[in-house]
Amino acid sequence: xxxxxxxxxxxxxxxxxxxxxxxxxxxxxxxxxxxxxxxxxxxxxxxxxxxxxxxxxxxxxxxxxxxxxxxxxxxxxxxxxxxxxxxxxxxxxxxxxxxxxxxxxxxxxxxxxxxxxxxxxxxxxxxxxxxxxxxxxxxxxxxxxxxxxxxxxxxxxxxxxxxxxxxxxxxxxxxxxxxxxxxxxxxxxxxxxxxx
Length: 196
Hints:
Blueprint: H1 2-17, H2 27-42, E1 55-59, E2 63-68, E3 74-83, E4 89-93, E5 98-106, E6 110-113, E7 120-121, E8 125-127, E9 133-141, E10 148-156, E11 162-169, E12 183-188
Parallel strand pairs: 1-8
Antiparallel strand pairs: 1-2, 2-3, 3-4, 5-6, 5-12, 7-9, 9-10, 10-11
C-alpha cells in the first residue's frame, strides 16, 4: 500500500511539473470549443466553414476559368484565342496576382466573407462549345434546413460572358440580400502582355 501511494504521488508531481500546454483537451471537447467559436463568428453559416476546397475548371470556346469552392471565387482566367507577345497563354487573372471575395454584414454576427466558406458544387468541371449553355451552382448550407447561400454561374459555349447571380434563402436578416448589400472586392495586378 505504501509503495502504491508513493507511485501515485510521483505521478501527480510529474503531471504538475509538465507545462499546461501539454495537457490537452480531449478531441470531443476541442471539437466542441472549435464549433462554439465558429458559431460565434459565423452564426448559422458555421457548418459552411468546414470542408475541403476543390478546384473547378470551367471551359468554353473562348476561355478557361478556374474557380475554387473556397468562397466560390474565380482564381484564374485564360483567354484561349490570345497569347502574350512571347507566345504564352494570356491570363487576365491568376491566383498569384488577383484576389476576389464577396462579403456581407450578418445581423448580430458581423461581416462574413465568402472565402471563409466552403461551397458544395453541382459539377466538378464544365466544358461547353458552340451554342451549348450550362449552369454551375455552388451552395453553402446553413445550420437550419433550407438555409443556403447560392452562387449561380451561367455561360454559353461561344461567349466571353460568365454571368453570376448570388442568392440567399432561409436566413433572417439577409434573404436575397434585400436588406444587407453584398460587397464584391476584386483586385487584379494585370500581367505584362505586350513587349515595351
